[in-house]
Write a structure and sequence with these properties.
single chain, 159 residues, 7 strands, 27% helix, 25% strand, globular
Length: 159
């Protein structure tokens, strides 16, 4: 038996260090937190994704008293984009979150279900999706969902 070490590479930046496009995407994700319906957790998550054609789609978490029927911000944005623009790959996604104390200091990352959906989007369009995880202390920039979900289950896993 041998140990195998998996590593990821990511960047850490401040908002003012981002390109104009990335900064606008992060600010859109922050604004999307205001569209969240988080009556039960008081944890508002916003997502903004940019398609290859430049279109920006927003998503926000939507809760329900039956927690399992709610939906995360990342998936609301992805599913809306895929319905409206099925031929457009997602090139970047920004995610921001806040609680009753304000925006989160440390960036939050997508849950496992969202990571799986994001991985399928990369697979569908055969290109990576850059991910910008916003926190007031700084932003993690991830080059691909594969870095967040290195041992992902995809269609190749079923062959």
């Amino acid at each position: 038996m041998k140990d195998i070490q998996l590593t990821i590479n990511l960047q850490f930046a401040q908002l003012d260090e981002l390109s104009d496009d990335d900064r606008a995407l992060v600010l859109a994700a922050i604004q999307a937190t205001e569209r969240s319906y988080a009556k039960y957790s008081n944890f508002n998550v916003g997502a903004a994704l940019r398609l290859a054609n430049g279109t920006v789609i927003l998503g926000a978490n939507q809760e329900n008293a039956v927690f399992t029927v709610g939906l995360c911000a990342e998936r609301t944005a992805i599913f809306a984009a895929q319905v409206q623009y099925p031929d457009q790959p997602v090139v970047a996604m920004a995610i921001a979150a806040k609680n009753q104390n304000g925006m989160m200091r440390v960036p939050v990352s997508p849950c496992g279900s969202c990571r799986q959906v994001m991985s399928e989007v990369e697979e569908r369009y055969k290109q990576p999706m850059r991910i910008l995880l916003y926190g007031t202390d700084g932003i993690y920039i991830v080059r691909s969902v594969k870095d967040l979900l290195p041992l992902c289950f995809d269609d190749g896993s079923m062959r």
